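Have a close read of this protein, sequence plus C-alpha cells, and explain what the C-alpha cells say about the fold. Thanks in advance:
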Amino acid sequence: MTIALIIYFLLAFVLMGKLLLYGIRPTKTLAWLLAIFTIPVGGMLFYFALGRNRRKNKFYILKRTRSISEYLDKVEGYYKIIDSNSEVPIILKRHIKLVKLIIKGSNFVPTVGNEISPLKNGASTFEAIFKALEIAKKFIHIQYYIFEEGDLAEKFKSILIRKAKEGVKVRFLYDALGSRTLSSTYINSLKAEGIEVFAFLPMRLGRFLSSINYRNHRKIVIVDGLYGFTGGINVADKYISGDTNLGNWYDMHLELKGAVVNSLQAVFAMDWSFASGTDHLLNTDYFIKHSNEGNSIAQVVAGGPDSDFSAIQQLYFSVINSAKKYIYIINPYIIPGEAIKEALQVAAMSGVDVRLLLSANSDSLLVKWTVRSNFEDLLESGVKIYLYPDGFLHSKVIISDDELSTIGTANLDIRSFEQNYEVNILMYDKAITTQLKQDFLKDCRKSNQLQYEQFSKRSNIERLKEGIAKVFSPVL
C-alpha cells in the first residue's frame, strides 16, 4: 500500500507539472489539480481521458499540416490576399481582418467563382449526394461522424460498391465513437470490393483514455474534386423519416462546386493521412483546376484539438464582434463558454439585433439544462432567444449583416471549439446570406420567444437542474 501511494503521488506531481506548464485556463488548471489530489485514482483517470491539452501534444505530425499548407498556396485559382491588390473583391476588403484571421488560424484562403447550394433538409441533401456519386469517374472520398446502418447506409453501399467495380477509387472514413454501431459485416462488405475503409481514432485498449474525448465530427463527401458536400447532416435514417422521440430532424448542408472543393479535399487528406498512416493524398493530384462555377466567395475553416489555434471559436467570436446590424444563430447546442457568451452580450447591449434559434426539444436532458443555464444572462443583456416547437433543429448556421454566413459541423460549445475536429464553410455572399436570413426570420415567427421577466421567475428546481448540468458543460 505504501509503495502504491508513493507511485500515485509521484505520478500526481508529474501531472501537476504538466498542468502548470501546458494548462490553458487557470480555473481549468485548478479544477484538474483539485480532482487529481482529492479523488483517488478517479481524478487521474478523468484527467487522462478529458483533461490533456492537445494543442501542446499533437495527434498529427506537424510536417503533414505544413505540407497541405504549402501546396494549397501553389494551386491556381486560390486568391492571394494582399492589401494593395486592386483585384481583391470589395466584400473581402470589408472583412479583411476576418479573412486574415482564418488564413492564420486554419491555413485556408478564400476562393472565388464558387457555386454554393444550401441544402435545407435530409431529403434534398442525400438526393444531391447520391446524384453526384452516380456520375463519379475518378474518386469518391467520404467521411462521417455518424454513419448508421439503415436504408441510407444501404443506398450508399450499393452505389459505392458499383462505382468501385467501375474503377472509381473509393475511400471511406468514419469516426470510431460516433459510428460505433457500424457493424464489421457492413465494413467488410465494402473492403471486399476494394474500397479503402479506416476508422478515425479507433477505441483500442492502449490508447482508449487518450483518444475517447477527441472525436472527428466532420461530414465530408468529395466526388472527382468537382463536387463537395459538408454540413451538419450525418448518415442516419432519422434525417429522412424522423424518430419516435423528437419527430422530424431539421438540418443544413451545402453542395459546393469550384475551388473551395480543393480546400475541403485538403481537410479530408489530412484526416485520411492520420487515420490510414499513408501520405499519398498529400499532393495536388486530387486538386482540380476549376473554371468559375458561380459567383460565391467561400473560405474553409477547419479546426481540431491539436490545431495551433481554436479556429472555429475564433471564427464565431470574430463574426459576432464584427456584426453591426444583426447576428442570427441557429444551433442545437448553445453552450458558448465565457468568451462567446460575453461577445453575444456585448453585441446585444451595443444595439446589434442578436437572435438565437434552437429547439424547444433536445436529444439529451443534460444538454438541455446546460443550454438553458445560459439563457437568463443572455436575455438580460438583450439577446433574443426563440424555441422552435416542431421536431429537432440540428443546424449549425450563423448569419450576419446580409454579407456573411457560415454553415458547417461545429456547434456553439466547448467540445466543438476544443475537443472535436470540425469544418465550416464561411461564405462572403449577399445572395446566400439574404436567403438564409429570410428562412431564419420565417422560423422565428413559428417559434416561441422567451421573455426575460418570465424566464427569470422559473422555479428553484429548474435553476438547480441548470446548475448541476452546467458543471458538465466542458465535456458535453
About this structure: Residues 2-51 form one domain.
